[in-house]
Amino acid sequence: MTSKKEVISIFVDNQANVLTRVVSLFGRRGFNIDSLTVSATNDPALSRITVVFDGTEQSLAQIITQTEKLENVRAIFPLKKEDSLFRELLLVKIAVTKEDRSAIKEIVEIYRGKIVDLSKTSMIIELTGETSKIDGFMKMIDCYNIVEVCRTGITAMERGWEEKE
After folding, report:
1. What is the DSSP track for 37-71?
2. Is 25 left (phi over 0), alpha (psi -120 to 50) or beta?
3. pLDDT > 90 in the chain, percent
4. All structural domains of the chain
5. CA-to-CA distance for 82 and 123, rounded, in angstroms?
6. Which residues have a Cβ under 8 Å from the Cβ of 4 and sit 6 or more positions away?
7. Which residues are within 8 A (CB) of 55 and not within 5 positions of it... i.e. 6 or more apart?
8. Fewest Cβ atoms closer than 10 Å to its Cβ: which of 31, 36, 76, 161?
9. Is 113 helix (H, G, I), strand (E, B) or coil?
10. Is the pLDDT of residue 108 over 60?
């Protein structure tokens, strides 16, 4: 079986140490987490954990089965690329000269990013999108003096909505 990027969404009780329990389960089973995001939901009692890891269909089934057994887990399901939206946030600080600013601004506009901070010596750019878009942007600006990079990792949500019975 070939390994590929798997993305799962886990709804958990919004309590202390729940994230630790979920993450340690992955570690105990020998899974390396590539990306992990945690966020509030519209229900203050629940949090959403989005986990990206390399795995096979068999390992995906195993991790879902094991995670469902944790007492604070309310729901877990895989997110398939064709049925979901995957997004990532990038903040990147670039050291700039007066001459660099307009070229960088052009690249930012093409990628539909935002310059969120500007000083005489640097700019901070914000960009959201799929990982491939973020990676493409980073390749375009790698010839500039990148001072600092912060990427959130993938957050994801299934498309559409159907009321569950």
Report:
1. EEEE-SSTTEEEEEEEEEE-HHHHHHHHHHHHTST
2. alpha
3. 81
4. 4-78 (3.30.70.260), 85-156 (3.30.70.1150)
5. 35
6. 54, 55, 56
7. 3, 4, 6, 31, 63
8. 161
9. coil
10. yes
